[in-house]
Design goal:
single chain; about 475 residues; alpha/beta; TIM Barrel; M1 Pyruvate Kinase, Domain 3; Pyruvate Kinase, Chain: A, domain 1; 3 domains; six-stranded mixed sheet; 21 strands; elongated
Length: about 475
């Protein structure tokens, strides 16, 4: 099940893809990690899907990452009397605390904190920004607005408040229940929605207590002022362009995306670009040229992974969506310009032993045309540090911890392998050569670069670089 590409694919599971057969097909087609969206479905639904993924993992003998994506404090209006109402541009519209069904003049807003945070002149966006309201007056009981952009409105549509940091925690009571359930299942990542400040991540880390890695979803433009700190506290980053694209002008999303990808790579944190990547494939098999370019641009920028949402969760062509994304990534990575960009926009050197060793490994692998860089890693840190360099050779992440192997399935260029730990230096080389051969990365007489730490099993002790030929070691192992 070797992938002949470096960037990874994340697929969201849902009604179109929640059977074992579909999950197995999606994995074979190219999915590296699966996303469970806790905004939808029951705990029983997610448990069944989780078990299907782990069954596929066993059948294919490949570690598969699972992301539990929490809903977060999603703001929504209340129910409307009719199936839909039409808000006319220039008309008045009121949001209030009255829980009666709304109409074309008013709607229930079940979020009292908004009445405290909003001011005259602020803007409210409803239904992914399709309807825009300018605030004219705010009291304890109602928010009076003028419709700047009208349109049809239905019940329970989402509300966005751009440019304002709201007094909301990123973890609602529902999120805490969902997170506890997901951790008991054994998910590898927990994705936090609508993070606004570093304290949101700290709260989640305290609750997770090392049982899973944390992905911070960047959906609010206000995150820019805390960006470096948010990345530092996170294990991974997701650029969730749905809500982000609602709250800032469309033309500002691409440069912000590039800035986030660059900042995450600089700190050695995997970054996922998400939302509407192949959106037209929800309804039709071929993507638009613009969508293909969108996926390609994320790869050219150096993203670790790209994500499919509705395309695989509820679309008509989940398999075709994965296959198309795989083809786009592969095409980009074969382009000479891709390598030139990775080289031109390299990361700054960090003055640590692991960074020095992985930088040397990348250089050595390119110089001798090694077939792979093999990393021995306990926590995954060595493999992630090696990936930060974006080497020309793929990375074999060998670990004795299955949780680490699953976590690495999301990291650029890393083919993770779960096997027993080496006890001696010679055994380390034997295992590296054997795995490189068995996983079809290197043939006999081909070279690999090995990086590890001594004493073995010591976290963060990467201090050894060794070049080995597969021929001798693999032949000896087979003979033994």
């Amino acid at each position: 099940m070797r992938r002949y590409r470096f960037a990874k694919i994340v697929a969201t599971l849902g009604p179109s893809s929640n059977t074992y057969e579909k999950i197995a097909e999606l994995f074979k087609a190219g999915v590296d990690s699966f996303r469970l969206n806790f905004s939808h479905g029951s705990h029983e639904d997610h448990q069944q899907i989780y078990e299907h993924i782990r069954k596929a993992e066993k059948e294919f003998d490949r570690p598969i990452g699972i992301i539990a994506d929490l809903q977060g404090p999603k703001l929504r209006i209340g129910k409307l009397k009719d199936q839909d109402v039409f808000l006319k541009t220039g008309e008045k519209f009121v949001l209030d605390k009255n829980d009666e069904d709304g109409d074309e003049t008013r709607a229930f807003l079940p979020h009292p904190e908004l009445f405290e945070a909003l001011n005259v002149g602020d803007e409210l966006l409803i239904f992914d920004g399709k309807i825009r309201l300018n605030i004219e007056a705010v009291t304890q009981e109602k928010i009076e607005t003028t419709v700047a952009y009208g349109g049809r409105l239905t019940s329970f549509k989402g509300v966005n408040v751009p440019k304002i940091s709201l007094p909301l925690t990123a973890l609602t009571d529902k999120d805490k229940r969902d997170m506890a359930f997901a951790l008991d299942l054994g998910v590898d990542w927990v994705a936090l929605s609508f993070v606004q400040r570093p304290e949101d991540i700290i709260e989640a880390k305290n609750l997770i207590d090392g049982r899973a890695k944390i992905i911070t979803k960047l959906e609010k433009p206000s995150i820019v002022k805390h960006l470096d700190k948010l990345i530092e506290l996170s294990d991974g980053i997701m650029i969730a362009r749905g809500d982000l694209g609602v709250e800032i002008p469309a033309q500002d999303v691409p440069p912000l995306q590039k800035m986030i990808v660059r900042a995450a790579r600089e700190q050695g944190k995997p970054v996922i670009v998400a939302t509407q990547m192949l959106d037209s494939m929800v309804r039709a098999p071929p993507p638009t040229r613009a969508e293909a370019s969108d996926v390609a641009n994320a790869i050219y920028e150096g993203a670790d992974a790209v994500m499919l949402s509705e395309e695989t969760a509820a679309g008509n062509y989940p398999m075709e969506s994965v296959e198309m994304m795989d083809k786009i990534i592969t095409s980009v990575e074969k382009d000479e310009v891709y390598r030139a960009i990775m080289h031109a926009f390299g990361v700054d050197n960090r003055h640590t032993e692991p960074d020095a060793i992985t930088l040397s490994a990348s250089s050595a692998a390119k110089s001798i045309e090694a077939r792979a860089i093999v990393t021995y890693t306990t926590s995954g840190g060595t493999a992630v540090t090696a990936a930060r360099q974006r080497p020309t050779a793929p990375i074999l992440g060998i670990t004795g911890d299955i949780r680490t192997a699953r976590y690495l399935s999301l990291v650029w260029g890393v083919h993770s392998v779960h096997t027993h730990d080496a006890r001696t230096f010679d055994e380390m080389i034997d295992i590296a050569c054997h795995v490189a051969y068995e996983q079809e990365f290197a043939k006999q007489e081909e070279s690999i670069v090995i990086i590890a730490g001594t004493p073995f099993g010591t976290k963060g002790a990467t201090n050894v670089l060794r070049i080995a030929q597969v021929e001798d070691r693999h032949t000896q192992k087979q003979a033994a």
